[in-house]
Amino acid sequence: MPESSSSKGKVSKLHKRKHQITALFMDMKHKESELAERRSKGLLTKAETQAKYGW
Predict the structure, then answer these.
(1) 0.70 surpassed by pTM
(2) Which of 19, 22, 30, 55 has its CA 20 to 30 A from that of 46?
(3) Which residues of 8-27 are buried (b: 16+ CB within 10 A; e: fewer)?
């Protein structure tokens, strides 16, 4: 079944409900970027805390 150019790269509700690999992959990529952002903020906060208290 060929994909149309307008639906390429998008995940539909049906894909999510059926746990298709593309839906899972897109979800993983989205969460991966959020996790990296959260991790970098945590490291910055840790460095700020160490500088504040001189640890």
Answers:
(1) no
(2) 30
(3) eeebeeeeeeeeeeebeebe
Measure the CA–CA gap between 13 and 20, rounded to whole angstroms: 10
Contact 11, 22 (CB under 8 A): yes
DSSP state of 1: -
What does the pLDDT average to over 29-46? 85
Has residue 49 been placed in a domain?
yes
* Cα distance from N-terminal residue to C-terminal residue, the chain: 60
Q: For residue 25, which of 38, 40, 9, 39 has the smallest C-alpha distance?
A: 9
Report how far residue 49's alpha carbon sits from residue 18's, in angstroms, rounded to the nearest whole number: 45
Separation between Cα atoms, residue 35 and residue 55, nearest integer Å: 26
Q: Is 17 a domain residue?
A: yes
